[in-house]
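Homework help board

Subject: predicted structure for assignment chain

Our instructor gave us this sequence and asked us to write out the predicted structure in token form, then describe one feature. I got the tokens but I'm not sure how to describe them. Can anyone check?
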Amino acid sequence: MDTQNISARPHARSRNGGENHPSRGTRANTRSGGVIHDNSRHTSRFTVIGNHLAQHAELSLLAIGLAVHIQSLPGGALIDIRTLAARFPEGKTRIAAALRELEAHGYLRRTCERTSSGRVVTRTVSCNQPGRSGAGAAEGPEPGPGPEPRSRRPARREGEPPRRALPAVPQPAYPAPDLLRSAVEVLAGLRRGDPRLLLSATEVEHLAPAVAAWLERDLPPSAVHHALTAGLPPEPLHRPAALLAHRLAAQLPPVPPFSAPAAPDAVRHPLRNCETCDRAFRAPAPGHCRDCRPEPPGPHPAG
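My token output:
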């Protein structure tokens, strides 16, 4: 870890002699094949991690490692899926699943807050000890009071039957802002292919997380567009948003399996003719084959 934890006690005693890292009984550990700790005390550039995280019985190894990485970062660092996937080789799908694990066990908290300018932002808090209010949280300035949110749905006219709520839709594992923006663009573009799919702002807000759940499964926006618009009935659509919500939930594709990054292709140089023996060989530039290359100059033997 490369970030010093400012909440750690500056003169904490080493735990080498404690119950978790016994220094006595090394001989017994050697006989049984158990681990032997060779610990050095850190005085700078370190992060304190509790055993409740490092030895968590329900978190995956990826989630534990990701939590340690996040706790080592300075306040304000980006931890969205795209940033983490660019840093680690596990890929967006596995990283999203690990973030969901951490959120379920209290190591991450995500809240939507309204700033003083009226903009809604997502705040992510990393907790180094879940269950203790504010412990290990990545603190930041408190947002100022904003205006009360107003409903975007127009008032129901007299005599009009009550509107039915839209069906529940899938939620993304980790709703990154750029992922939600792409989802809104997909929904806004549906009416260009079918004018019946004109959605209100409230309907787009309800459906966007479901489209984001599709996109985080490594599907391009064009594939989601096709799944939502293909095979629609010819008759008028009385509740297009409800139909889209049903498709997004019923046809949600599975999480793709993890695949290791492909190894780069080996460089294959073109064929050359040796300038001495005219034999063909592969090389980046013309010259001599291996047998005709002059010997590199070496030290002359002492006379």
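Reply (TA_rk): Your tokens look well-formed. For the description, you could write something like this. The mean pLDDT is 77. That's the kind of observation they're looking for.
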